[in-house]
Amino acid sequence: MIYDTTPIKNYILYLKKECNLSITLHPTDALLYATDLITFNIHDNPYCIYVKTCKQAQEHCIKKQSAVVAACACGSYSGTCHAGVREYVYPIMGKGMVKGFISVSGYADKHGEEYVSAISRKYAFPKKELSAAYCTLKTQMPDKKIVDTLLIPLCQMLELFYLQADTTAQDESFISKILRFLKCNYTQAITSKTLCKEFACSRSHLSHTFNQTMGTTLKDYLNVLRVEGAKQLLHSSELNITEIAFSTGFSDSNYFANVFKKHTGMSPSTYRKYIRSEQL
User: Fold this and answer.
1) Which of 47, 52, 142, 225 has the fewest Cβ atoms surrounding its Cβ within 10 A?
2) Is 84 exposed, middle or buried (0-12, 13-18, 19+ CB in 10 A)?
3) φ/ψ (deg, to 5) at 185
4) CATH no., domain 169-278
């Protein structure tokens, strides 16, 4: 059963818009990947988006998340990620266990140039472009006491979500693996056959378990991931609509435009104009 996550979504939007905090959720299981909350799983600053255009860098970031989960088991803290982005981290608790973490991110580190040089060498990024993207990060982190006060309600809402949620450990583990795979590979051509081969399961079991746990079809969920990736590129890049369609896993730009409008109510070009006008 999937519970209504609208209050959680609305509070995160409040923190982002009214408090100017870049909030992302990084759960370790399937439940918080419900459609309403998946939009908050992607960092929205141009630097992180740029770094994650490299698949190896994106995979490294995801692998590092297990260490973050372990570190926040003792409570919230501040730190710097492998790419040089400062952040506050808060544990997501559920039934006495750490179920992931909340990141308040998007801040530059005082040793930022060293991080940029290292990332540029490791993943063959043009250093000039990487430095320009890094300069878009905020230079001053807010007082942690203020952030603590703002994040306590979100932590409590997420903990309550887990108290109410009900799923089997077996299905949760199965779906978690699928969601992690989709998150890492949504820009590639993915079909039910691909997943059945990857996870050694039948198409009927995959479809039934996914639909029952997530409350949506695999195809619709994958489209949500791709639309969210496209929204980030429309906001922060100069790629044209066709390039963005192919970059986010769509094989046809017209189909991409139709899916995008279905999910956002706007065409990709209209969304780009709208989101950029909001920044003025």
Assistant:
1) 142
2) buried
3) -125, 15
4) 1.10.10.60
CATH 1.10.10.60 segments of the chain: 169-278
Angstrom distance (rounded) from CA 146 to CA 212: 39
77-129 residue pLDDT tens? 999 999 999 999 999 998 889 999 999 999 999 999 999 999 999 999 999 99
- Side-chain-side CA neighbours of 117 within 13 Å: the count stands at 4
- In this predicted structure, the answer to whether residue 278 has a pLDDT above a threshold of 90 is no
Total residue length of the chain? 280
- Convert 222-239 to b/e letters by CB count within 10 Å (16 or more is b): bbbbbbbbbbbbbbbbee
Say whether pLDDT at 280 is over 60. no
Sorted by sequence, the CB contacts under 8 Å of residue 240 that are 6+ apart come out as: none
Strands 85-94 and 97-108: antiparallel
User: Residue 96 contacts by C-beta under 8 Å, 6 or more apart in sequence?
Assistant: none
CA distance 135 to 195: 39
Q: Which amino acid is at 152?
A: I
Distance of alpha carbon 29 from its chain centroid, rounded? 14
The pair of structure tokens assigned to 45 is 């600053």
User: Using one digit for the tens of pLDDT, what is the confidence trace for 167-196?
Assistant: 555 556 788 788 888 887 888 889 999 999
- Tokens at 246, concatenated: 């192919």
Answer yes or no: are the C-beta atoms of 99 and 93 closer than 8 Å: yes
Distance CA 268, CA 133 (A): 23
